[in-house]
Amino acid sequence: MSSGWPRLDAGLEVPAQPPRRRGRPDHKAEARPVARARALLSVLALTRYSRLGSSTRLRFLDLLPILRQEGIRVDVCSFFDDSYLTRLYAGRRATVPSLVGYYGRRLRSLLRLRRYDLVWLEKEALPWLPWWLEGALLRRRPYAVDFDDAWYLRYQGHPNPLVRASLAQKLSTLVRGSSLAIVGNAQLEAWAKEAGARRVLRLPTAVNLNRYPVAERAPNAGCTIGWIGSPLTAAAYLPPLASVFAELTRAQGCRLELVGSGPLALEGVKVSILPWSEAEEARLLGGFDVGIMPLAHDEWSESKCAYKLIQYMATGLPVAASPVGMNRTVVRHGVNGFLADTAEEWRSALVTLRGDPALRRRMGEAGRRLVEEEFSHVRAGQRLVEGLREAAFS
Hints:
This protein is α/β, with parallel strands linked by helices. The chain contains 18 helices and 12 strands. The protein folds into 2 domains: about 1-15 and about 40-205 and about 375-394, Rossmann fold; about 210-375, Rossmann fold, CATH 3.40.50.2000.
């Protein structure tokens, strides 16, 4: 724990570093021992979910090995467990005893803050409870807070006026009191700065490229259009394109595969629905020929971090996506994929990709290069290390 560890302000001398070699990032860097002396930092990560939750897994848990190498020790305490998400995706509510247990566990963690140099929050510490309580508990230690969605809209747009009255400004106040706000894209960065954040680190959700080998694809094996996500996002974003999918699967010889969507009825569409698992995720993506990410034109969608697209590109896939939020940054139209807004634009983009395997290959290669240069988890982890250290000792 922090009581026995040297701090950054203890006069520890850090040796000069040799210049970094230019070129592509070294995605095996996390396997090497730390070559420089760094003051140890103790952090309590208060995540919203456990490993089944994608935001927790990708923005917290997958980066822990890099933090550990850099002398940052992280203890993780999730609010919800995997059974909560399993019930949520099945359309069932959490039980009252489980909710009592979730809040009890989190309160016990909050009472141990003095053992750590920094608290690292995912979205908030106490969901659905007011700021005056959460702020009183967090006041004892500096904290960083991470957002990869416009979570503030859940309170500000809630149909219950009592929720809006008591919680609408909670997350803005939380960000304003933080030592560091970590956000996934420019939309969230603008919100955090408007809320009064002292420091903002824009950190896109990244991928471990070692887990995403580029699959070899037979040029004449047809065309599989693929999507990956949760049942909630599938129900929100896929039905508006049902007529496009129906034409492509019926008249164009395409297949539609959905990973993680759960049962989903798309009128007139023959669809293959595959269960998601972390172990099988990369292999399933390797079976696609095109990856898609349709979104709606609303504030929630504008804050999305385009992670599906980054996954597809890591696997060497061309993409088609709605021109919404970070999608506009990740997709270089005509280079690594197509941006499509109307049903006709979607049909045109997918028909073009279906009929041109060489174009799919070129776009997939361009997407993979982009992920290697900008969205590798090694790069994200290194930036996070500096951000957390600055937040703890500034």
